[in-house]
């Protein structure tokens, strides 16, 4: 899938790159790299919100389950048609 990928760090040069859209095998000089994000961003990514149904900030009263994010996976966000995001 083009929307999924991993962060890879070359241990010799320190260069970090993103590999996405294909199966990738690490070489002997590479390792998975964890991308740290601010706590608020981590919380938003881990929440199980439906981007189409949950557009408002109102709390519906339902406790949503949160999952721990794999920090080596590429961060991607699908934006619905006719919607806006701030980066």
Can you give keywords for this protein?
about 90 residues; 3-stranded antiparallel β-sheet; elongated
Describe this structure in words.
The protein is mainly beta and 87 residues long. Helix content is 9%, strand content 16%. The chain has one helix spanning 39-46, and strands spanning 5-10, 16-20, 30-32. The protein has a 3-stranded antiparallel beta sheet with strand order 2-1-3, with no helix packed on it. The longest helix is centred in the middle third of the chain and has 8 residues, at 39-46. The mean pLDDT is 81.
State the helix count.
1
Shape: elongated
- Which structural class do you get from the secondary structure elements? mainly beta
N-C termini distance = 23 Å
Radius of gyration: 16 Å
Q: What pattern of helices and strands is seen along the backbone?
A: EEEH
Strand arrangement in the largest pleated sheet = 2-1-3
Estimate the helix proportion, in percent. Answer: under 10%
Mean pLDDT: 81
Low-confidence stretches: none
Instruction: State the total count of DSSP E strands.
Output: 3
Taking the sheet with the most strands, its summary is: 3 strands, antiparallel
What is the strand and helix layout of this fold?
Elements: E1 5-10, E2 16-20, E3 30-32, H1 39-46
Summarize the model shown:
This protein has one helix at about 40-45; strands at about 5-10, 15-20, 30. It is mainly β.
